[in-house]
Design goal:
By secondary structure, this protein is an alpha+beta fold. The chain is built from four helices and eight strands. Helix 1 runs antiparallel to helix 2.
Length: 185
């Protein structure tokens, strides 16, 4: 098994590509070891000292480290843990992956549908390339609330991505959108 690694815009996060499906559909975000109960893969990765977050995508895994840990020391252990997991035949996650966007009902349902469509077609594929995901969390009086996961969570350039990229895109296509803000879930 050959696992490729890619850097992400977040220096504390690396993207690992095992060359096969990880989740297939959906994503799973494990911001700490306690959240990883449903994932044999994430639990195995959290056993590596210095790992603080694991995010599973369709065909990739992003791992976030502590500030004082060095990738040159962590990477071999992480690669070993990923290989062991896939050789074991265990699933990456027990149960279902996260569906993605939060539900929204009410008078703004049509606007929210347009927001979700733009996120799915234009934003999420690009963000997945960087090892993360962004999902819709809410819409209130022109403000779109988005949840950033994986490499995007805590990334130094995430504010710029939200304001200059996603906000401008949504405002261009949907005049009712006035601002985009991140939320921590």
């Amino acid at each position: 098994m050959f696992i490729q690694t890619e850097s992400t815009p977040n220096p504390a996060t690396l993207k690992f590509l095992p060359g096969q499906d990880v989740l297939g559909l959906g994503t799973a975000d494990f911001p700490n070891a306690d959240a990883a109960a449903s994932s044999p893969l994430a639990r195995r990765l959290f056993q590596v000292a210095g790992v603080t977050g694991v995010f599973l995508g369709s065909d990739f895994i992003t791992v976030t480290k502590t500030d004082d840990a060095e990738w040159q020391h962590l990477k071999p252990e992480i690669l070993g843990a990923i290989m062991e997991h896939f050789q074991s035949g265990a699933r990456a996650i027990e149960g279902e992956a996260e569906a993605g966007h939060a539900d929204h009902h009410g008078p703004d349902a049509e606007i929210v549908g347009q927001i979700k469509e733009l996120l799915d077609s234009r934003v999420r594929p690009a963000v997945a390339q960087d090892g993360g995901d962004i999902t819709f969390h809410g819409f209130d009086r022109g403000v779109v609330y988005l949840h950033m996961k994986g490499a995007c969570a805590g990334c130094p350039s995430s504010t710029m991505t939200l304001k200059m990229g996603i906000e401008n895109l949504l405002r261009h296509y949907i005049p009712e959108v006035t601002e985009v803000r991140p939320v921590a879930v």
